[in-house]
Amino acid sequence: MEYLKKRMKFLLIIIFSVAVIFFVQYELHFDNNLDLKKVGLIMTILQAAAGGYGIYGVVQFFRVK
Q1: Do 7 and 64 touch, CB atoms closer than 8 A?
Q2: Do residues 17 and 50 lie in contact, with contact meaning Cβ atoms separated by under 8 Å?
Q3: Which residues contact 50 (CB under 8 A, 6 or more apart)?
Q4: What is the SS3 assignment for 65?
Q5: What is the DSSP string of 1-65?
Q6: Which among 18, 29, 35, 53 would be 20 to 30 A from 10, CA to CA?
Q7: Cβ density class 37-60: b for 16+ within 10 Å, e for less
Q8: Tell me: the pLDDT tens digits for 1-59?
């Protein structure tokens, strides 16, 4: 239990990052009202940032002592 207690913050970071990535993919794929010229760049930046934050969470998850 102590193992998970120390890593709970990083589990939440990973879950949040994956949720943001899935949400962006869902919106880009299924919402026909989006103008990809205006929103596409912002969605791509958001997806890249969430991916980087998720990688940070994974690295820190295994690094905590």
Answers
A1: yes
A2: yes
A3: 16, 17, 20, 21, 24
A4: coil
A5: -HHHHHHHHHHHHHHHHHHHHHHHHHHHHH-TT--HHHHHHHHHHHHHHHHHHHHHHHHHHHH--
A6: 29
A7: eeeeeebeeebeebeeebeebeee
A8: 787 888 899 999 999 999 999 998 888 888 777 777 778 788 889 999 999 999 999 99
**Contact indicator for 48, 11 with CB cutoff of 8 Å:** no
**Single-letter amino acid code for the residue at 57:** G
**By the 8 A CB rule, do 13 and 57 touch?**
yes
